[in-house]
Automatic annotation (TrEMBL), chain A:
Domain DUF4130 as annotated: residue spans: 100-260
Lineage top rank: taxon: Bacteria
Pfam families: DUF4130
Organism classification: Bacteria, Bacillati, Bacillota, Clostridia, Eubacteriales
Name this polypeptide is given: DUF4130 domain-containing protein
UniProtKB/TrEMBL annotation, chain B:
Boundaries of every Radical SAM core domain copy: 61-186
GO MF, one example: catalytic activity
Alphabetical keyword list: Iron, Iron-sulfur, Metal-binding, S-adenosyl-L-methionine
Lineage: Bacteria, Bacillati, Bacillota, Clostridia, Eubacteriales
InterPro entries xrefs: Aldolase_TIM (IPR013785), DNA_rSAM_put (IPR023874), Endo/Exo/Phosphatase_dom_1 (IPR051675), rSAM (IPR007197), rSAM_sf (IPR058240), RuvA_2-like (IPR010994)
Top-level taxon of origin: Bacteria
Protein name, as recorded: Putative DNA modification/repair radical SAM protein
Pfam families: Radical_SAM
Entries under Gene3D superfamilies matching the protein: Aldolase class I, Photosystem II 12 kDa extrinsic protein
Amino acid sequence: MSCQGAVNPKGARKLHDADVVYLYDGSFEGFLCCVYESFAQHELPFAVWTPQRETATLYPVKDIATDPAVARRVFASFGKKLGAETEYLVSRDFLSGQEDKELLLLRFLHLAFALGPGTVKREGHPVVAPLYAMKKSLDWEVDKFQGFVRFEEHDGMLGAVIHPKNYILPLLRPHFCGRFPEEDFMIYDAVHQAVLLHEGHSTRLLELAAPLELPPPSAREQQFQALWTQFYKTLEIKARHNEKGRMTHCPKRFWADMVELQGEL
Amino acid sequence: MEQTLMDKLTILADSAKYDVACTSSGASRTARPGTVGSCYAPGCCHAFTADGRCVSLLKVLMTNCCSFDCGYCVNRRSNDIPRATFAPRELAELTMEFYRRNYIEGLFLSSAVLGTPDYTTERMLAVLRLLRGEYRFGGYIHAKAIPGTSPELLQQLGYLADRLSVNVELPSERSLNLLAPDKGRHSIFRPMKQIAVSGAASREELTLYRHAPKFAPAGQSTQMIVGASPETDYHILKLTEGMYHKYGLKRVFYSAYIPVAEDTRLPALDTKPPLLREHRLYQADWLLRFYQFEADEILDKDNPNFNPYLDPKCNWAVQHYGLFPVDVNRAPFEMLLRVPGIGPKSARRIWHARKQAALGLDELKRMGVVLKRAQYFITCRGFSGAHPGRGSAGRERITRALIDPNVFSGSCEQLSLFSPPAVDNLIGQGVPPRTAVRMVREEAVQCLAKAL
């Protein structure tokens, strides 16, 4: 069975590349409505944009309204027809910061609904492989930030600032809430203007309108930061110095938010 | 003069940094209400030092005042260095404050032998009890078992810590007697066995009673120093395999010996740490744990040391060239794992993907197979194996694809960390580094091609 031909089983209306741009509100529900539209029209749009990414274009722009009922229906079909693994992959990949993620996901979903639940296992397929590449970059960043988030204490509240490429706060949530159930803490994502707030045993994910500024650290806080920086510097074994090794594991883009490395920038 | 916390931390972290193990893997739990801290099974790195090593735990010694006199160790009795000791509460508080700020994953507590092994362990236990009891700390704790500790104390340590470790230090009894006269073979393997037995008993109990106390749920590890004594790589690898089988160890760590003391029994102070050898040992260790290899397949009595220019897996493949090429769409999983350029991850991907449709070269490439090396060892849909050409030219082409790039990489000013001894010798004779690397590389290619 050829992989490419299988997208259009006999008798089905032909999927075609449409000269149209989808515009949706950027939410996962909105994206699911784009999926609905794409399947209803049997078309692959030229691009899928959110208001932030909208630019001038000659193609007609189709506004996709977010309808929770439609979104629920589409999402339910993932689990039912494509299996839990596909559902997981698609919802996780949606958090990726890659520009054309919606289009890649749409292409994959058209293939998956044609070929069935096994499609997700074809990691070498040209349409499936980009999804795994996105997932890899996302997982890598989540893994790194679980370690690299640095809290500062301000009046009993722990606060941290991060600059991730992907929208990872929802994925950091179970890790940090499962770790500090008794603490009040917040993680501020300065790139996506969002805050993960854990206060009095309840957690909220907030979108901010204006940038947030943390107050300068107190004297007690500075003391712990100095202790940590000193500990970090002491650990290096000079005979094995390997700057490149450090850079592969902890690229410089993380350094500005890590207290022990700010001095080396 | 009173030492500040900063002084103590500096001294005791500096003394502990030669311990290689800094992993926080193997235990998994989330914090219950009222407690602080969780464990994440794959482990978590919180920072990377300038030598590229991961910082996961607050790795310190309880004290560096030692009554032993081991030749290879910075903290030996006869060495003149500043000494310090943590008070239990001081250390427990520091751990909690670091942990809350997400600097660390937990505590790695080791110690020099202060007075007697039992007294030292009591002090370590005091810290662990404070953390687990008063501070309700649920994060990761790695405790080092001090050789010579009584079994009762070790048992208590195991119920408080996630991982225990006993350092083998040197790969043979002879070296141990020579360099660490205070530690006998017995004082190392007895606790190792006790940890293995207690761990197994605890796991069995857990299947019967859900709330049975856990004994070192993340298992045990060990480390040994490579290059301080004359053992061969084969000897070290056999010892490693034996410990994995017999004591169910989670990890064996190797540390290239860095001269810290002038001693006639040890390599001279200007010896470079054998980083390439350490790297090869780790590669072979991975083959044992994840690639279903056995030590006797990797090395044997006639070839007791690693080939500096080929990684152990390529070396095996070259010596068993007759078994290849294999068809990736049909080969059993064990055989896929043995193809140079295919690792456990890509092997698993191939295993799943080939049930959906036959795989070609493009698919393999997208799945992360390194075709530069794999092409001479596989066939797949639309590809019947790369033909390097006949005779010596062909053999040379294969060798060039397989030769370990890490050894010869690096710019003209800075050599690769793993530069082989032959290159260093040439540079010592006054040959410019770049020329030396090229000469050794050419010679290695010719030599390996001839053997193919």
